[in-house]
């Protein structure tokens, strides 16, 4: 039984020999590319969506980190205030 990766590699090679799109396999590939114009557009949109998703996750992680810093600052403030109470 041939593996899934091997099947897709052979499919890609077969389609590129025939200068057909490696994704849909029906349209001729755009010159200099392995995909047809429609599949290239889909690829670009998918990349944009995933980069937007990654940016969102990075932003959420940064927000979480900054909130943790705020907590630390508040804890430090409380510690200093309690020491001030002892001194004065
Ligand atoms: Zn295609």
Written account of the structure:
- With 88 residues, this protein is mainly alpha-helical.
- The protein has one domain.
- 74% of the residues lie in helices and 0% in strands.
- It is built from two helices and no strands.
- The protein is rod-shaped and about 85 Å long.
- It starts with a helix and ends with a helix.
- Zinc ion binds next to helix 2.
Unique ligands: zinc ion
Terminal Cα span: 82 Å
* Strand-residue proportion: under 5%
Structural class: mainly alpha
The tally of beta strands, per DSSP, is 0
| The number of domains | 1
Q: Considering DSSP H and I runs of 4 or more, what fraction of the residues is helical?
A: over 70%
Number of helices: 2
Largest sheet: none
Please mark out the parts with pLDDT under 50 across 5 or more consecutive residues, or reply none.
none
Question: What is the quaternary state of this protein?
Answer: single chain
Tell me, briefly, the overall form: rod-shaped
